[in-house]
Design a protein that fits this description.
mainly beta
């Protein structure tokens, strides 16, 4: 059974850092594009970053450029989202997802995603 499980969220002060993890089971994530998206209360879902099969990354949210990076550990079948210089507007539930299109295309759609992990940036 295909599953994605996120972890690593929490409460952090503005300017702080968090590293989110996305552990995959039931499939080998290196053969697919994997994305992180976030959703804040009352706001639409927003794609953040995507890592392609060849390991390249694509940004979808201009506000995170220079602050967030995506990476993966192939033996551990895990994708990470490193978030630095966090801002209150980064507060959201962060989900990782398997991209339906097999690539980090302009318009992402997802066929599987996890329950998410809450990130709260507040002093």
């Amino acid at each position: 059974q295909l599953q994605l499980v996120e972890s690593g969220g929490g409460l952090v002060q503005p300017g702080g850092s968090l590293r989110l993890s996305c552990a995959a089971s039931g499939f080998t994530l290196r053969y697919y594009a994997i994305a992180w998206f976030r959703q804040a209360p009352g706001k639409e879902r927003e794609a953040v970053l995507c890592i392609s099969r060849d390991g390249g990354s694509t940004y979808y949210a201009d506000s995170v450029k220079g602050r967030f990076t995506i990476s993966r550990d192939i033996p551990k079948n895990t994708v990470f989202l490193q978030m630095n210089s966090l801002r209150p507007e980064d507060t959201a539930v962060y989900h990782c997802a398997k991209v339906r299109q097999l690539m980090c295309s302009i318009d992402l759609s997802y066929d599987y995603w996890g329950q998410g992990t809450q990130v709260t940036v507040s002093s």
